[in-house]
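Q: Structure for this?
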Amino acid sequence: MTKVTEKKQDVTILFAGDSGDGMQLTGSLFTDTTALYGNDVSTFPNFPAEIRAPQGTVAGVSGFKLHFASMDIFTPGDEVDVLVSMNAAALKANLDQLKPGGTIIANITGFDKKNLRLAKYEDGENPLLDKSLDKYRVIELDISKMTREALVDSGLGTKEIDRCKNMFVLGFLFWMYNRPLENTIKFIQAKFAKKEAIRDANVKSLKAGYYFGDTNETFTSRYEVESAHLPSGEYRNIMGNQATALGVIVAAKKARLDLFYGSYPITPASDILHELARHKNFGVKTFQAEDEIAAVCAAIGASYGGALGVTASSGPGIALKGEAIGLAIMLELPLLIINVQRGGPSTGLPTKTEQSDLFQAIYGRNGEAPMVVVSASSPSDCFETVIEAARISIEHMVPVMYLSDGFIANGSEPWRFPSADSIDAIKPRKADPSKYTEQDYLPYKRNADLVREWAVPGMDGLQHRVGGLEKENETGNVSYDAHNHELMVKLRQEKVNLVAEAIPEQTLDQGEASGKVLVLGWGSSYGAIKTAVRELIADGHSVSHAHIRYMNPFPKNLGSLMQQFDKVIIPEINNGQLVHIINAQYEVRAIPFNKVQGMPFTSREIKERLAEELNG
Amino acid sequence: MTTQVPEYKAKDFATDQDVRWCPGCGDYSILKQMQAVMADAGIRKEDTVFVSGIGCSSRFPYYMDTYGIHSIHGRATAVASGLKASRPDLNVWVITGDGDSLSIGGNHLIHLLRRNFDLNILMFNNEIYGLTKGQYSPTSPKGQVTKSTPMGSLDFPFNPAALALGASSTFVARSMDRDPKHMREILAAASNHKGTSFVEVYQNCNVFNDGAFATFTEKATKTETTIVLEEGQPLVFGQESDKGIRLNGMKPEIVSLADFSKEDLWIHDSKDLGKAMLLTRMFDDPSDENALPRPFGIMYQEDRYCYEDAMNDQLDKALEIKGEGDLDQLIRGTNTWVVD
């Protein structure tokens, strides 16, 4: 029979199942294939904090959301078109995200009595049998059974066979969205190169899912999401943590410095360590320290020795590093501190996203301890932003805090990557021993930007002592002099202020240079704001969007830029941090718009809030 | 570093900074010996870095005309680890105290010891917090009355040498500020050891804990309370060198040389881990009856790979397998597509 293909502009799929069901892999593989096909893609994995929460429970549900489109998109999608539910808990945990009229693909084995009970449905209640799902299109598949049947001759045990059921689902979705299997088959073959039986079973299961869609007469329509008209060039898919790691390597190479990365495992930053550890042939030294404090201290030691010292963590770990970061501020050495933010305070929500460490970044140390802070706005933006962070740190001899968050760290998007040549060299301020005699070298003598020179052990005649005690201006000797202390406090502050002279001015992402409402964003809410503002502009509203990368110091023109608008509104995934800083520094009364649910904004939420301001 | 090493004198290692320890502090003696050892070490002062934490002893780097970092409390060992990992060519010394290394910095100390970076730790043990003016430290004996323990300390003290050995240190030694000659020998041996050397120095704080080690350092008592270890030599001590330590199975016991010959005694072998464990455990309160004498000298040393060398080996191996990293390839990754 003929099957109809329906065209769609964009589709959001949420793969949800038990944390052992392989949903993250399934989602990533769909992403790779559809990106290769030319769609714009944005993804958002959402996993439980527990590695293996009790099977079948809502706590154990792992999800991978992906939004792909024939146009350019900036978010992983607000509402879901297709919800793949490997069990009852997966449906229960995610049903509120499904569009009215959306599709549920339910694995009916996952809706048996035991699974319903584990998902805490009332005794006798089954959403597949009652009318509660009537406003959706429900496709019931016995995925477990069909996978077992397809693999009956595989020679594998039931447990191993059951692990292939995610490939069946993936195959079925590839059929539904008209995507080829080759890329995934290639992946499976490489991954299980040495485990033939498992390799063959996964490929067979994938194909079985695809053929099932193709031959089963109940499925009459397929969907086509044409390739997007992205700017021409070569693309790859990239996750934020990966982009951060690559950026760090590039920055070190562009500065001709050795790279030392000291880190302690923490969610969601650990993947940066994993990625860097794979690239030792770039001279990358990764050091898994005994704790967060050792990680940053080791990085400081490396910087003192003339390398680019880098450390990374998330909020709780950054708190532990605070004292050492203060030391780096006193030492005036390069140090890159990466904070992949998560929900706080304390241990908070390790696997959920939040933008609540801005105060910590800017203010979170004892004493007058000014810190340069930059923030990345999307998975691919992590690359350029972390290079900027390293550039400032190296060229200005200051520690720099680079903020990312769980959302962009684990999210992915297509990236039109640059060539290495197109990235500017970074120029370390290393001292030149030939310019000094042993007597006239002053470790804290500064240039016009108030930057001191970087004299590293081994340099002839430049031996000197640095430390956390207050320094005498220029000589760097310990000094308790009252006026000297005040001078040094002001010098360190002014040095950070002067970074504003070296960074680009703030530009508008979209909209007119003046008007009714300016949306001032930072960090990972970029995509949701951009989408909302684009739609509002298309509807004829006077709204513009500026997104800040340089959080401290701010670009010089930020104040005058904001003054061109009647209202400034600042959406943040926190309780109001940037808005507080903006209102303290500028003559504006910026309006906060906050969400603190461990989840990113949807563009609809922002659009609705902006509409209130625009119409009000 | 290719530059030739000049002929140094000890005073070449002094800086223009006034030394600000209290008059009579044991630290002066340690500084003097260190300057002498460095002058003889055959290493350029530009290639030497002293790293310290916080405490009286941690002012040390300001008084050595080398590179130096006076870091934060307890973290010198961590700073030094990163420095040595990125710069294996440097001669690195960690200067720390009993509070700095065993209390706030205890964690970094044990991890540095097991990793065995090729650097030296000099731990000034004065059994007191001096810089904060006299609180008990993790090495203060139980019952010690200090400002923070008016009824006596409840803490059972650390045995630093046993702790170091337990953390798989590859060089464990003990010396004292009152015996400059011995200290100089031990510092030179630590400097020569490839791996992390842990040297505990009994150091008198004449302001807050005067005489804490008097029984080990004063002429009248030291011959009975201490035993100076010499490689390959029997463990002999006593006013008249008339006593020795014999191993009765696993148990060290004091014997009289009137009853035993030197051949019957425990012969010091610093490479013997089992014996080293017993030596570091010779930690009796000297006022106890039948207290074993406290050993001074190199209790243990072993050859084991150093972290920074293994790290560099991995880098070399990665280069061999993958070739020199290419930035464009790194940025491209493996899966790309072209949009026209």
